[in-house]
């Protein structure tokens, strides 16, 4: 386990609020990475991708930067517009 992982685990044990905020930020980052990877696989600029998914380019930028908490509806719209299947799964939480 890295030093940062140890720190996060320790802070999470000490503060439920920290654990919750960390989890929320981590999820937003995962979504950001997935959307960016999809756009890269399609070989599109943010502007082109935004036009394809019928969203403002600023929305795509906020999603990719992890600054936007993206709804399942928006992710479904992105999946539909790009001929992708959106998958949501539950995994055991790690301590």
From TrEMBL:
SUPFAM superfamilies in the cross-refs:
lambda repressor-like DNA-binding domains
Q: Which Pfam families match?
A: HTH_3
Domain called HTH cro/C1-type: residue spans: 35-89
Signal sequence extent: none
Query: Could you tell me which InterPro entries the record lists for this protein?
Result: Cro/C1-type_HTH, Lambda_DNA-bd_dom_sf
Return the protein name.
Multiprotein-bridging factor 1 family protein
């Amino acid at each position: 386990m890295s030093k940062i992982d140890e720190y996060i685990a320790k802070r999470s044990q000490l503060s439920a609020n920290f654990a919750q905020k960390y989890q929320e930020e981590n999820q937003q980052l995962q979504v950001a990475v997935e959307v960016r990877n999809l756009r890269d696989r399609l070989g599109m600029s943010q502007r082109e991708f935004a036009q394809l998914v019928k969203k403002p380019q600023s929305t795509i930028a906020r999603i990719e930067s992890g600054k936007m908490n993206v709804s399942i509806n928006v992710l479904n719209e992105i999946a539909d517009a790009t001929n992708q299947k959106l998958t949501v799964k539950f995994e055991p939480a790690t301590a």
